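User: Can you recover a sequence for this backbone? Please restate the input before giving your answer.

Assistant: Of course. Working from this structure:
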């Protein structure tokens, strides 16, 4: 994608690297992450107006410490080194780094010695004479510290434990910080990044969703030409936004395919079809393959087998439908930037790379080429894009739903009857979570059907029926999660409704496990 004013983030393996790029983009300046060992030619071609060197777990004196091409310091482009990025600047530019006497993690108080550019407007400043000093909290995470400045640098801030918490070489526009401005715990971190992006690197806030849509629509049109494109719709945000954006670009050249695999949520198929067909007037084929999937899944208990069956069957159904559309050349897919970064990471191909709703095999079998219009976006940006495209909030802010659907929430054997029991219980959980105003406050909320039966009494009769577990979690990215403290009254309503309305359930329990050590899904 062609954006003129952009910031390059070189990745040295910090857990916060993505956050740096996001913080820059929040300022409406385009930012991309490249691995630290990218060639200088690639960097020249990228033409950044500023470069940020991320933190990282290494020490610059490790035998194989990751170091960038030294030529980055001769590009004439402003550079900001963060944490490890600071230490490598010190080492590569002729300073000295040593192990800190005391390692410093977490909160520290920054004392600013010079607030002329990078630290401009950041709370209280110089410690001069009787000048009062307001605390400026920053977030540290390092074991090394600068012992000797590289030539041309001066100290611009310190903490009690780090005599050089920030340094600058104003002539060359090089700056370095021992702390992390990208994390929320660093007060004024955003202000500091803004100073780097706008005042020092001279970027303008041109990267808006509107400009993204204009550029991307143009690119899709050029790429697709007059060819036909298919797009798999899962009901999730990414594929829906991909479809709407593709539709805006190439209209009737696009055909979306939505497969009902028999383990979708209640009313899902109709909801998705209505939205895309009526609201956006899209070509969409909805395939009711529920019987076909459920037959294959019948009595299957092993979770990985369930996943495989659903994945393979999806490819078959999709392929059969797509073949009916003559001369299809492209498959549009909602790959997001975190997946792209993962796959270009210098750490090598990671086990985390997602095969994205099982479409990987389609490319090979059907000789399709890929269009991935969201590959530069983070998840929250996809939501902003969806809103800008006029998509309903119901689709934009919906909870993640696993590709294998309810099948991995039916613990034990999947059968059509058990799928129906869970579908009804799940719908009640969501209805009540929504009506209590909790839907947007939790990451996911759902029901799980357990493989045990328990005794109950209903009227004068003894029952021996299924147990449903209710799970609701809070999370930022799904990697870690805590159980959500749903009020007892809401849990009470959910339990009453499920037991009264869903035939075959006589007991409801609430899951109070966090991840780790548990996972969000039960299978
Ligand atoms: P876990 O259970 O690993 O889930 O804590 C983390 C997130 O991933 C989703 N999930 C899946 N998504 N296919 C998917 O597309 C799967 O097989 C799958 N398993 C888990 C889960 O819903 C949660 O958001």
């Amino acid at each position: 994608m062609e954006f003129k004013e952009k910031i390059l983030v070189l990745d040295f393996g910090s857990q916060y690297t993505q956050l740096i790029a996001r913080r820059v983009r929040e300022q409406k300046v385009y930012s991309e992450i490249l691995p630290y060992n990218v060639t200088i030619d690639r960097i020249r071609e990228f033409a950044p107006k500023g470069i940020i060197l991320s933190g990282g777990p290494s020490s610059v004196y490790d035998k194989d410490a990751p170091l960038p091409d030294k030529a980055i310091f001769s590009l004439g482009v402003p550079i900001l080194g963060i944490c490890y990025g600071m230490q490598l600047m010190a080492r590569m530019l002729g300073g000295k780094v040593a192990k800190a006497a005391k390692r410093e993690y977490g909160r520290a108080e920054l004392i600013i010695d010079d607030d002329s550019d990078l630290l401009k407007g950041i709370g209280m400043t110089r410690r001069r004479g009787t000048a009062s000093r307001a605390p400026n909290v920053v977030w540290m995470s390092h074991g090394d510290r600068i012992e000797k400045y590289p030539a041309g640098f001066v100290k611009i801030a310190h903490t009690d434990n780090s005599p050089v918490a920030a340094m600058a070489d104003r002539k060359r526009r090089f700056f370095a910080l021992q702390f992390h401005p990208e994390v929320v715990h660093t007060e004024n971190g955003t202000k500091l990044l803004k100073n780097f992006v706008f005042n020092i690197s001279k970027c303008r806030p041109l990267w808006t969703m509107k400009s993204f849509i204009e550029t991307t629509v143009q690119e899709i049109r050029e790429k697709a030409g007059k060819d036909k494109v298919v797009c798999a719709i899962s009901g999730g945000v990414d594929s829906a936004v991909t479809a709407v954006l593709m539709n805006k670009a190439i209209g009737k050249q696009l055909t979306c395919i939505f497969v009902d695999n028999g383990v979708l949520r209640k009313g899902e198929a109709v909801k998705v079809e209505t939205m895309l067909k009526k609201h956006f007037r899209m070509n969409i084929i909805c395939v009711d393959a529920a019987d076909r999937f459920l037959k294959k899944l019948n009595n299957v208990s092993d979770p990985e087998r369930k996943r495989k069956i659903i994945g393979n069957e999806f490819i078959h159904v999709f392929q059969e439908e797509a073949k009916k559309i003559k001369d299809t050349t492209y498959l549009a897919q909602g790959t997001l930037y975190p997946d792209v970064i993962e796959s270009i990471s210098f750490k090598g191909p990671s086990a985390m790379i997602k095969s994205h709703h099982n479409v990987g095999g389609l490319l090979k079998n059907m000789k399709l080429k890929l269009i991935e219009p969201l590959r530069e976006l983070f998840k929250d940006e996809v939501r902003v894009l969806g809103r800008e495209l006029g998509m309903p909030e119901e689709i934009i802010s919906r909870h993640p739903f696993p590709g294998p659907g309810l099948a991995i929430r039916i613990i034990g054997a999947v059968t059509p009857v058990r799928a129906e029991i869970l579908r009804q219980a799940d719908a009640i959980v969501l209805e009540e979570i929504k009506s209590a105003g909790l839907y947007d406050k939790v990451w996911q909320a759902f029901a799980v059907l357990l493989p045990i039966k328990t005794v109950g009494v209903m009227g004068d009769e003894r029952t021996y029926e299924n147990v449903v577990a209710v799970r609701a979690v809070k999370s930022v990215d799904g990697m870690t999660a805590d159980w959500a403290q749903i009020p007892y009254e809401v849990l009470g309503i959910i339990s009453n409704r499920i037991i009264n309305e869903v035939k075959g359930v006589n007991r409801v329990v609430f899951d109070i496990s966090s991840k780790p050590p548990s996972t969000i899904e039960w299978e």
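That completes the design. The CA atoms of residues 390 and 449 lie 36 Å apart.
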